[in-house]
Amino acid sequence: MHSDEELVQLFVVTQKNSFFEELYARYADKVYRKCLTLVKDTARAEDFTHDIFLKLIFKLGSFKEEARFSTWLYSITYNYCMDQLRVNKKRGETNLDEELEVPDEDTDVSVLIEEKDADAQRLQRAIDHLSTEERSILMMKYLDDLSIRDIAGVFRITESAVKMRLLRSRENLRKRYLEAVILVICFLAKLISEIIGKF
């Protein structure tokens, strides 16, 4: 089986679609999931994935084996998505990073209590409310297992700057997670107080 880098070279030299199709088969789902993490919209993530692989056909000739192909493709994916988000922001679209929502007073408390993986859901909610950059850098480090050096290459910053951003992103995630937990606790406390008041 060919390595990613060998497939790139074979495609560049021969222009045979089969080599590109193999790369597509290996990475289409990963690129889609990364796009979805950044744009949080399935239709746009699908469109972006298609656009990124279209771009890739023309960019493969510029691939230098200074980094792994997967890291290089991640960089293209990240930069394309960020460019599109900036364009949309200029057009006046709603910012994706919305404020944390306070549970409505009519929310059924049994739903909150009986959720099997409430902690995981609160953590995911906290992640969703980080900035796009914070989400990306945490995903690169802890989900994609990229090295500090690889992340620096994607963001085009120094390794020291990556470490500082990781530290700041982890701290922000911790605060967001605690905010979500406190909101639920306050809601439950209020509900219990109202129930006791009725007796």
TrEMBL record:
Domain named RNA polymerase sigma-70 region: residues: 23-90
Record-linked InterPro entries: RNA_pol_sigma-70-like (IPR039425), RNA_pol_sigma-70_dom (IPR014284), RNA_pol_sigma70_r2 (IPR007627), RNA_pol_sigma70_r4_t2 (IPR013249), RNA_pol_sigma_r2 (IPR013325), RNA_pol_sigma_r3/r4-like (IPR013324), WH-like_DNA-bd_sf (IPR036388)
RNA polymerase sigma factor 70 region 4 type domain mapped to chain residues: 121-173
Keyword entries, A-Z: DNA-binding, Sigma factor, Transcription, Transcription regulation
Residues forming coiled coils: none
The keyword DNA-binding appears for this protein: yes
Entry keyword DNA-binding: yes
Transmembrane segments: none
Matches recorded under CDD domains: Sigma70_r4 (cd06171)
Family: Belongs to the sigma-70 factor family. ECF subfamily.
NCBIfam families xref list: sigma70-ECF
Protein name: RNA polymerase sigma factor
Protein's organism: Ravibacter arvi
